[in-house]
Amino acid sequence: MSVIEVENLKYRYPDTTTLVLDDLSFSVEKGECLGIVGENTAGKSTLCYALAGLVPHFYKGAYGGKVTVNGLVVREHEIATIVENIGLVFENPFSQMTGAKQTVYGEVAFGLENMGLPRKNMHTRIEKYLKLLDVYSVKDKNPFDLSGGQMQRVAIASVLAMEPEVLILDEPTSQLDPQGSKDVFKVIEQLTGKGMTIILVEHKMEQIAQYADRVLLLHEGKQIDLDTPEKIFSRLDLKEFGVRPPVVTSIAQALTIRYPDTQLYPVTIQEFKRLEEMK
Amino acid sequence: MNTMTLYVERNSPIHRLDPLVKLLYVAASILLTYILPEPLYIGGILFVTFLLLIIGKVFRNSLPIVTLSMFLIFSLVIVQGFFHPDNVTELFAIGPLVFYEEGLYVALVLVMRVLVMVGAFSLLILTTATDEMVERLIKKGMSPKIGHVILSVLQLIPQMRATMVKITDAQRSRGVETEGDLLTRVKAFFPLIGPVVLNSLNETKERSIALEMRGFDSPMKKTFLNEAKQYPHNKLIAGLITGIVILGIVWRVFG
Amino acid sequence: MNKNSMWSLKLSTAAIVLIPAAIGINYIGKLFASLLRLPLWLDSIGTVLASMLAGPVIGAAAGIINNIIFGITADPISTVYAITSAAIGITVGVMAYKGWIASVQKAVVVGLVTGFVAALVSTPLNMIFWGGQTGNIWGDAFYTFLISNDIPQWLASFGDSIVVDVPDKVVTVLISYFIFKGLPNSLTNIYRQDSEIEVI
Description:
The complex is a heterotrimer. Chain A is an alpha/beta fold. In chain A, 37% of the residues lie in helices and 21% in strands.
């Protein structure tokens, strides 16, 4: 069974008239990394909210269809139950700090305290994820004294410490400096390597191409396509949906460097080089 | 990081007391100034409070807090001293101003009461870490959400102050006048407060999403990272304070 | 909206997170007012806004916690007026719910009522704690004037509070009203406690 199943999902925010999500249906397998691309009005964030239960529980509004996460029907469960199965990290690291904790260590503990995890299990978990996210050295600092990149990694550690099945990253680096983004992507690479199921929304298509197994292309709430990065980024009508392919793909298109069997263009530098040599 | 509490970290027996016992002391000392409203008794309570501040090694830290209420104290002495309705007995005069015994007596009681309030309260806040107090209150049944609100305000305000400085500079450089006649200054208020409000409300939305994703609304019984501190002699001290209050009431009724 | 929802104690996370923001706004309002040397406190804009956005329960909670926080971080005296702040939150919350923030004129009425209620609640507190005064120079001067004209102490004390509270609350409610009207729908509707999920 798939970890995430979305069937005919429709959604409209309160006091509005247009559907932000218009009849989406797809599934995500365990261990898969799904990239979501599209322009700003495509509904990417709203889809993330729908997977995490914030839509409809937090935002209310009009809802149709069915989302199942780890066997749990999102519509029928409280957010507090859903978050034990799916975690969400979004772009602003600052507002993801709870504000009630004076140390990074306590910050990571926050979710575990709410879950009612016994104290003796807390320390091992907190330390495990602080180390995984490479923020163990700042564990006694005040979260608000950290750099944006560190703060974002603390946010990821805090969500992962709750040990969800799926992690949603909604533009996790768009407010970070280059070094901060690099550190966060290093973590994403590690997590995909460990077989974590990840949903990644990202503006930098190079990163999508690098990590995503499949890419969901959205436009004005509608599902345009769901396929491998090579298929999606080789689409000639990509510009119509406000998405530009990775730079390597554009170059490959100009030089007609492609896979001989499928006629698709490469999406990563490594593949580009390999195909170029073959040619 | 500036978290704006007045807590002073010291090693003293007062610091080691249960925050709830200190809270009880605040309530009891204020209550006693009403049960026994004579200067002698209030003076006694004031003396004990100051003594505890000294034992807690925070007497000097309490002085700025007391100073904050100086205007109120000054105003009490002047107004009650001159104008209390019961004034008949002239005590002394400075030029045309006549101070009356009755008014000054009332003022004395009021001033000492203000000092007890401020002193006892200072004792609590100077010797108690806010998170320790909040966790104690949550364990005694206060909503964890209210606890969260209290703790987060203490971190939020220094950050809003930083935002405020940024916005003030930005608006000044855009030509918003913050000096001049009253109308000019009133006009400046909106461009200054508007962005801070919008910014903090937007942040509210994101932060509530983040909290939801961390199980903030969970119906599970919350656990705590920090082990509960042990407070020796807790019951004894609480009993003692309650006993003194009851004794005061008995004294007042039958004495 | 049904009748119960205004007083519902089951509060959404958004409404709870609004409380610290409201307290921060109170504090910033007060700082800006003193920075601009305005003759008013303007230290309850956040409480008033929270009441308009999320109703009387959140408004009252914001008011009470505001004064407790201010008590433990700066001035213990302010803790006494937690009750007044709660009354301000409740008054604005109820009046907003009943449709009294539909226009500027109505908002002025809300300000007047709020100021009056604040004075009404403060008077017994001032009587109990400081023999009727407020510690505000204009208010206390007015108090002195009334007392020396043989006005009963409680009435003089009420006069003292009225002078202090009414102008401040009228301006505070007006400022909050203008801010409230400028907020986008997508922001204001997350604090409401009454929305239902519609099925499509």
